[in-house]
C-alpha cells in the first residue's frame, strides 16, 4: 500500500486527489467487499475513508453503497465515520444516500439515515435522494424516503418531479384526484395557512433570531408550493377546455374550503372560466368560503370586476339558499374555536354576516329559502345557543374582573388615607417633600380611579341587553376597555407600593429595597403571559378588519 504517497498527494491539492493510483487497492477491495483488505488500508491511512478515490470524486462509501451488496461491509464503513462524513458528496453533489436511492439499496439507505437523519434533505445536481429514487423507479425506496424526508421539502420534491415528468401534472389517482387537488388540501404550505393575529403575536413574543430562521424556511416552502401550482396549471392548459375544466374544478373548490387563496388565484389566472365551478350542492367558491368562514378566499371578491355582482347572486339548488343564508349558518367547530370565548365567536359571526350583506342584492336580504326563512332568521336560529353561551361567558368574565377591581380600589383608597411615615405636626406627611412621595400619591390616585372605572365598565356589561348588535361592537369594546383599566390599576398599585417601600426603608437599605423592587415585576409579567385573551380582545377591537383587499392582482 502507498498511503504516505496518498497523504502527500492530499497535501498538495487539498481535498482534490491528483494521483488516484494510490487508492486503487482500496477501490478494488471495496468493489469485492473484502473487509480485511479495506481494514488494513484504513488502519495505515485512516483519512483514506473520507478521500475521493475515483475520477467522479466518490468516497469508499459511495462505491460500497453503489454496488448494492455487502450490507455488513457498508455497516462497518459507516461505524468508522461521523454523521458529517456521511454527507460527503461526489462531483455531482450526491451523498452516499443519493447513490443508494439511485440503485435501490434501501437497506444501506436505512443505515445511513439512522446515523444522519438530515441526509434525505441534502440536494445534489439531480435533486434530493427522493428524486433519484423516482428517476429510477425504485418504489420501495420512494416509500421509505417519503417517510424520512422533512415535511417542508414536500413542495420542492413535487416541483422537481413535475419538471422532470410533466405528464404527472395531468394524471389522476383513484380516490385522490389530480396532483393539484392533493396540493390544494395542503393549505399549511401557503402563506394563507396561518391566522394573522397569531403571526402578529409571534412576531413580538418569539426570540428574533430563531423566528427569522423559521420565516426563511417557511418562505422557501411557500415559494416552492406556488411554483408547483404554476407548473401544474401550465401542464393542464395543454389539454382541451373540457378536460382542463374537470381537472381544475376540484382543486379550486378544495382550496376554497381550506382557505388557500393562492391556488385559486393561479387557477383563475390561467383558466378564468374556473371561477364558475360549483360542487354537487351547487356551491361556488365564494359560497364555500362563506360556509367554511375562509376570509382569505372571500377577500378575493375585492379583486374582481363587476362580475362579483353576478357570482354572489348564485342560489344553491337543494335549499334555495343565497350566499347570505349561508353566512347565517353556524360554521364547523374548528372554524368557530379560532376565537377564545363564545362572545368573541358571536362577534366574528356577526362581522361575517354584515360583510356578506354588502354584496347581495336588496331583494336577497329578505329572500326566503325552501323552509321559508330569511337570512337573518337563519342566523338567529343557528346562533341562539352560541349567543346564550356568549352572554354567560361575558358575565362570568365581567364578574371576575369586577371582584379584582373592587379589591384594588379598596386597597388604593385605604393607602390614600394612611400615607407612609405618618403625619407631622402641621398635618402633612413627613415625606411630603420627597420625590418618591409624589410618585406614591399619583400612582395611588391612578390605581383608585382606574379600578373604579373598571367597576363601572363591567357593571355596564353586566346590565347589557346582549342583543346581536351589542355582541358586534359594544360588548367586546367594553371588555377591552375594562381589562385595560384593570391592567393600569394593577400596575399603578405596584408602583405605589414600591414608592412606599422606598420611603420607609430609604435609599440606604438597598438589601431590602432592591429585592422588593425586583419582585414588583413579577405580577406584571404574570399578567402579560397568562392573559392571551387580552391580546385577542385587543386585536378584535382595535386591530385591522379581517376583510379587505389582499392584492392588486385582478382576479376576473
Write a structural description.
It is a single chain. With 556 residues, this protein is mostly helical. It has four domains: 1-149, Serine Threonine Protein Phosphatase 5, Tetratricopeptide repeat, CATH 1.25.40.20; 164-277; 285-382, no CATH class; 394-542, no CATH class. It is built from 29 helices and no strands. The protein has helices at 3-13, 24-32, 35-44, 60-66, 71-79, 96-103, 106-115, 129-135, 139-148, 154-164, 179-184, 196-205, 208-236, 241-258, 261-270, 285-291, 295-298, 307-311, 323-328, 333-336, 342-357, 362-365, 375-382, 384-417, 435-462, 468-505, 510-519, 521-529, 532-542. The longest helix is centred in the C-terminal third of the chain and has 38 residues, at 468-505. The protein is flat, with a radius of gyration of 34 Å. The termini are far apart.
Kindly give the count of domains: 4
Count all strands and give the number. Answer: 0
The 3D shape can be described as flat
* Assembly type: single chain
Q: Taking all residues together, what is the mean pLDDT?
A: 80
Distance between the termini: 74 Å
* Strand residues, percent: under 5%
CATH topology of the largest domain: Serine Threonine Protein Phosphatase 5, Tetratricopeptide repeat
Strand count, sense and barrel status of the largest sheet are: none
Organism: Chenopodium quinoa
Domain PGG: 391-504
ANK repeats: 92-124
Transmembrane segments: 437-461, 473-506, 512-530
Amino acid at each position: 500500500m502507498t498511503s504516505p504517497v496518498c497523504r502527500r498527494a492530499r497535501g498538495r491539492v487539498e481535498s482534490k486527489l491528483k494521483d488516484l493510483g494510490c487508492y486503487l487497492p482500496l477501490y478494488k477491495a471495496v468493489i469485492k467487499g473484502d473487509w480485511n483488505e479495506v481494514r488494513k488500508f484504513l488502519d495505515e491511512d485512516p483519512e483514506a475513508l473520507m478521500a475521493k478515490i475515483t475520477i467522479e470524486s466518490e468516497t469508499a462509501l459511495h462505491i460500497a453503497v453503489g454496488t448494492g451488496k455487502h450490507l455488513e461491509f457498508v455497516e462497518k464503513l459507516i461505524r468508522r465515520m461521523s454523521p458529517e462524513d456521511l454527507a460527503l458528496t461526489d462531483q455531482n453533489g450526491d451523498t452516499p444516500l443519493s447513490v443508494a436511492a439511485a440503485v435501490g439499496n434501501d437497506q444501506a439507505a436505512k443505515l445511513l439515515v439512522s446515523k444522519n437523519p438530515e441526509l434525505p434533505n441534502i440536494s445534489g445536481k439531480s435533486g434530493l435522494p427522493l428524486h433519484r429514487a423516482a428517476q429510477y423507479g425504485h418504489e420501495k425506496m420512494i416509500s421509505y424516503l417519503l417517510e424520512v424526508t422533512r415535511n417542508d421539502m414536500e413542495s420542492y420534491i413535487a416541483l422537481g418531479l413535475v419538471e422532470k415528468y410533466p405528464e404527472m401534472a395531468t394524471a389522476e389517482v383513484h380516490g385522490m384526484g389530480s396532483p393539484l387537488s392533493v396540493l390544494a388540501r395542503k393549505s399549511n404550505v401557503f402563506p394563507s395557512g396561518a391566522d394573522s393575529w397569531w403571526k402578529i403575536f409571534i412576531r413580538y413574543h418569539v426570540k428574533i433570531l430563531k423566528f427569522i430562521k423559521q420565516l426563511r424556511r417557511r418562505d422557501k416552502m411557500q415559494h416552492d408550493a406556488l411554483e408547483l401550482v404554476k407548473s401544474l396549471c401550465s401542464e393542464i392548459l395543454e389539454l382541451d377546455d373540457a378536460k382542463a375544466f374537470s381537472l381544475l374544478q376540484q382543486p379550486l373548490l378544495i382550496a376554497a374550503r381550506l382557505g388557500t387563496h393562492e391556488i385559486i388565484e393561479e387557477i383563475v389566472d390561467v383558466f378564468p372560466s374556473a371561477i364558475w365551478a360549483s360542487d354537487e350542492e351547487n356551491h361556488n367558491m365564494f359560497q364555500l368560503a362563506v360556509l367554511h368562514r375562509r376570509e382569505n378566499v372571500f377577500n378575493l371578491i375585492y379583486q374582481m370586476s363587476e362580475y362579483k355582482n353576478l357570482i354572489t347572486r348564485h342560489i344553491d339548488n337543494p335549499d334555495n339558499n343565497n350566499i347570505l343564508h349561508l353566512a347565517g349558518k353556524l360554521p364547523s367547530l374548528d372554524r368557530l374555536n379560532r376565537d377564545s370565548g363564545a362572545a368573541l365567536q358571536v362577534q366574528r359571526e356577526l362581522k361575517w354576516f354584515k360583510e356578506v350583506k354588502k354584496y347581495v342584492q336588496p331583494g336577497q336580504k329578505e329572500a326566503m329559502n325552501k323552509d321559508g326563512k330569511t337570512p337573518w332568521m337563519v342566523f338567529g336560529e343557528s346562533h341562539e345557543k352560541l349567543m346564550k353561551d356568549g352572554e354567560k361567558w361575558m358575565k362570568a368574565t365581567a364578574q371576575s374582573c369586577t371582584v379584582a377591581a373592587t379589591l384594588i380600589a379598596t386597597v388604593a383608597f385605604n393607602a390614600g388615607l394612611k400615607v407612609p411615615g405618618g403625619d407631622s405636626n402641621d398635618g402633612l406627611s413627613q415625606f411630603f417633600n420627597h420625590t418618591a412621595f409624589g410618585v406614591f400619591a399619583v400612582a395611588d390616585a391612578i390605581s383608585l380611579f382606574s379600578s373604579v372605572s373598571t367597576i363601572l365598565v363591567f357593571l355596564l356589561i353586566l346590565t347589557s341587553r346582549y342583543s346581536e348588535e351589542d355582541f358586534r361592537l359594544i360588548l367586546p369594546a367594553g371588555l377591552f376597555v375594562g381589562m385595560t383599566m384593570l391592567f393600569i390599576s394593577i400596575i399603578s398599585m405596584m408602583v405605589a407600593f414600591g414608592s412606599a417601600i422606598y420611603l420607609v426603608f430609604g435609599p440606604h437599605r438597598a438589601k431590602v429595597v432592591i429585592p422588593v423592587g425586583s419582585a414588583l415585576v413579577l405580577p406584571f409579567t404574570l399578567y402579560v403571559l397568562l392573559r392571551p385573551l387580552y391580546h385577542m380582545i385587543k386585536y378584535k377591537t382595535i386591530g385591522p378588519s379581517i376583510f379587505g383587499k389582499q392584492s392588486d392582482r385582478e382576479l376576473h
